[in-house]
Structure formats: C-alpha cells, structure tokens
Design brief:
Largest sheet: 5 strands, parallel
Number of domains: 2
Strand content: 15-25%
CATH architecture of the largest domain: 3-Layer(aba) Sandwich
Number of strands: 9
Structural class: alpha/beta
Shape: globular
CATH class of the largest domain: Alpha Beta
Radius of gyration: 16 Å
C-alpha cells in the first residue's frame, strides 16, 4: 500500500509539504477548511495533487497513513480530534522536511522574541560567506517547498512554537533558543 500523506491546510506550509510529499512518491491529498488562494490551487493542479477547499471530508482524511497539520490549525479543531482519536500520526512540516534533508544542515532559531532578527542575521552572514543557503520557516518561505524546488546545503530556519508541535525526530544541526516568555496562552492550555 502506498504511503498516504494528508495535508491539513493549504497555505505556504501545506503547499510546500504537498509538493515535497508528491516528489518523494507519497499519495498526497490536501484539505483546507477555508478558501485556497488561486496561486496555491494552480500549484496543486500543475503537480497533479488532489485537494478540497471549504470542507474537511472525513473519509478522504481518515484513511491517511499520516497527517501533516499546518501550524495555524489548533488542537481544538474537530478534524484534528478525529484524526488523533483514530490513532493516525500527526506530524509538522519540519518533521517531514527532516526526513528528506539528506546531507543538508539546518540551523533552527526559536524563542518568544527576536526570532526574525536573529534568523535574518544568521542567514545574511552565511550567504555573505558564500554558503549555499536558504532562509525558511516562520519568516515566510516553507522549508519543504524550498527542498522540493531548489534544495540547499544549509537551511536557516525561524521556527515558531506552533511549528514545533508534532515533531518526533526533528533535530536541527544547530539549535538556538533565544528566550521563553508567557505567550500564546490561548493555544497552550
């Protein structure tokens, strides 16, 4: 049986994960409860990836081998609850990316404050030093999309707490924890 990867959410993260999953031979299905932007729909069409928008159809999702949940989707979401109740593994985009990084290195920067500044600075230093690198993560560009379209030797990644949810084996080669303060308390009960 072919590995069936269901992607919940069709924003930058979801589209990147879908492209990488398809490239790696997974049977990919994308589901977004809202409206998918036209540019993302076009990418899905162009790559022959099945998708739905405005709904999460249970029988199309609950037959997944695993689900990659976009970081903006909370645990309170009814479909997420159903997926977990069925025992289907839920992973993050960074977990998926880590599986396919090969010999590439990842510098991961996280913390409550200063992530974008620190990530941009590290990327700028690496780029000026002539390293084959990409700026990815919460700063705007999906790491899985970068891997699918133009793999690099080094990924400098801003990683939010939401993006760290559902990691299993992901370990950046260099990890930077800037600080921890009370934040997003509505998400973390």
């Amino acid at each position: 049986m072919k590995h069936r990867l269901v992607i919940l959410g069709a924003g930058e993260t979801g589209i990147g994960a879908a492209l990488l999953g398809k490239q790696k031979g997974y049977d990919v299905f994308v589901s977004d409860g809202g409206t998918i932007k036209d540019k993302y729909k076009q990418e899905l069409f162009d790559n022959g990836i099945e998708f739905e928008e405005g709904i999460h159809t249970a029988n199309k999702i609950l037959d997944a081998t695993e689900v990659m949940k976009s970081p903006g989707i909370p645990e309170k979401n009814e479909m997420v609850k159903a997926i977990r109740a069925k025992g289907i593994e839920v992973i993050s985009e960074f977990e998926l990316a880590y599986r396919f990084k090969g010999n590439s290195k990842i510098v991961g920067i996280t913390g409550s404050n200063g992530k974008s500044t620190c990530t941009s600075l590290i990327y700028h230093i690496c780029e000026r030093a002539g390293l084959d690198c990409a700026l990815v993560g919460n700063i705007g560009y999906s790491i899985t999309k970068q891997m699918a379209e133009a793999p690099k030797d080094l990924y400098v990644a801003e990683i939010s707490s939401f993006q760290l949810d559902d990691i299993k084996t992901f370990r950046p080669d260099i990890a930077v924890l800037l600080n921890i303060t009370e934040d997003h308390l509505d998400r973390y009960d």
